[in-house]
């Protein structure tokens, strides 16, 4: 058995023990014979069958505890045989999915129990135990090259040892196994030798022979024999590299004496007429136009009566090559026996082919490359091998033909592995893709040499070819075999794509065969995780077909189609395709199930799975704004709300994922409030599944923009679970979602009080270092909101939070800068905190952020500067120490962003308290800039603008300049605002302006007196005093005028 597995069996790797048996006729024949041997072994050789192996045979089995009957002890999923060895160890032990067997008797029982999975078990056993004899009898009986003296050693043991009986049984066993080896090798050689293959050397010999028939005179049989190309590659072929992948060796033009010239293709599978190739012919000229013949002489006999009549009269007979010279596998075995490794030979040959291919491309006339179809799109049909061929014989059975076809397909894959440049010529790589929409296209995976590709790549391509040419049963078998590969591996995924397997798999979805559809979808579901595969599926119309399958009554089909859609719809065009073909409505329908109870029937479990996969697909699709709206219109929100109460975590993850994705839309946030989903989200924060917790926290993060949601989270006692989740510092995604939810919930001061009780700020301060930016943005945002309360500002300082906050001012993340400036500004309202900020040069860093091009950062920095100036010990000197700082802040009054203007006006109001600074900003033209802004209708800007004007009036002739700039009349209109804080600031500004007579006249003309008289009775003393002062100034001016006029 060991020799047969080493020499005759065809493995996916050359020598390692990790390879798999290829799906070839030779291997299938070997497996069946080994299966028959094992099945009958126990009854034919009972003594040998009971022999305990030195080491158990172990492999991954598909058998389960339910498959075992009597004679076995079953404990849950585990199984032990009642039969034991001398030490009491069971001869068979099953711990799913691993099985361990110690004797042939148990092997015989396993294959009987496996029923229709017999071959699969034998295959798995042999793949896991490449040299089973070494395990059965010990390492000294391992399969080796050269002379095998293991039987002689056993005979010596019989003579010398005490355990003669056991050794005798071993001798019988090894003889039986060697007989099996001999039988397997003989049958394999017989099967391989039936394969007819031509080589470049054989074709060259035939051509030279035929050229000798072209002599003048009576012996002349042919007029001429010519190659279409004079260039010969190192491998002996004369065809272009992109035709060599099809096994074509050369093209000939032979002129018989009695017929038209014959255009002939010589390939490894035989010779046939083509469409008329001459040098570089058209693509359709390569097509076969005749039957396939064994060799050139056979073809010419069939096409030229003159040749057939005279060829046997020649002085030299046409000799056929010995069959062994045409059998590729036998040659390889012989080479290996002579110490010539097969793979190194193939590697040398590929390198030679590659050089020849490049030389051919460079030598083409005109220097232009001829674009050839890529292998993945064309020339992969299996029509040719199925057409009748003269060498099949009229009496050949269909089964024999099918076997031959499988061998031909296998040989094509072997030929592909020897073709230079991988699976296509150099021109294939000139194709480009224009699909780049919003996703960055991953670079195409291409290899310069097949040595970079594992053998699984070629094995999968072989299976795809079986998939193309087989009936329903063969198709299902090929699909099952394909799933045995690691389809999560990129090599396996691209192998399916490169050989045109995606087209086949997608076409299978249009058939009426449920099993084929299910098998195809299972494969597509796995490989569609690859971005290149996803795009290829979308290009081939696979999404449209899968959307239609969502209407199928078969639940397995529905959930597989939905899960595959979930994988494919990762980019914009795919999501749009799903929506445009009615996929959103169909996916929403899948959500309608009854998942509330934990114990479900089998049918209900399928319903839950369908709904889960539907939610997965909607989750992928919901990344598009239009799809969010389509889900809402299709009635998805109440169904998602119902599924949110499910006890099944695997259901909850896609449901919450969809909700948190859609929560960016206000309509969804309102629906989440009204449908009572906040309570369910909070409840799931307490589960043990970190992914589910993360999605729930993320949903709360987005929904907590609204005050009603923030209140609901507090009322549902969701704040404490959020604080608890801060301990999961290693899970960065969960931490980002949790800190985001805490940040948004902290906008409400009632929630800040709760967080204060739960010691949340202390934990948040500890997260200010060694965290990713997405976490820092949320942590700093939460601290900024919490710092609105005096007690929390002290807490941040005591926990050492000021320094890391100031350090973050040097970052580049815009969102983080907005939040950190707000947090620093809030902390600066405490004198002790301001001392630390000033010592760390925090104010200078804030001032430098006014140069940031982002208006949000500019505004936030300007707001933060205000408390810093107010609470600094010598604020005037500090501000003047910033070179160019005052000019910078005055120039920001040219901004078009109202938040920037309001914050800068507030900062100018603080700066103008210092007389020297007021003089400097006046020189920089602050007065006309402020006056220009007075026509605004934004109350926030009005308030701070009025404060700035009031402060700036206290220097020189600024009052007069404001009046001349037309700032007075607009200010009077501010008094009509509904915001009382605007009234106070405006009254102060008007009081300062009223000290100029011309301004008093303007105010009086605009009706300011009536407005101010009403405010003089206000409970706000500052407003009351400013209003009264302004009216008094106006009245004094009026009295002075009367006195001057009337004396």
From TrEMBL:
Residues 336-374, 424-453 are annotated as: Disordered. Transmembrane segments: none annotated. Residues 428-442 have a biased composition (Acidic residues). ARM repeats lie at residues 541-583, 635-677, 884-926, 966-999. It comes from the Eukaryota. Residues 344-357 have a biased composition (Basic and acidic residues). This is Outer dynein arm docking complex subunit 2. It comes from Oncorhynchus kisutch (Coho salmon).
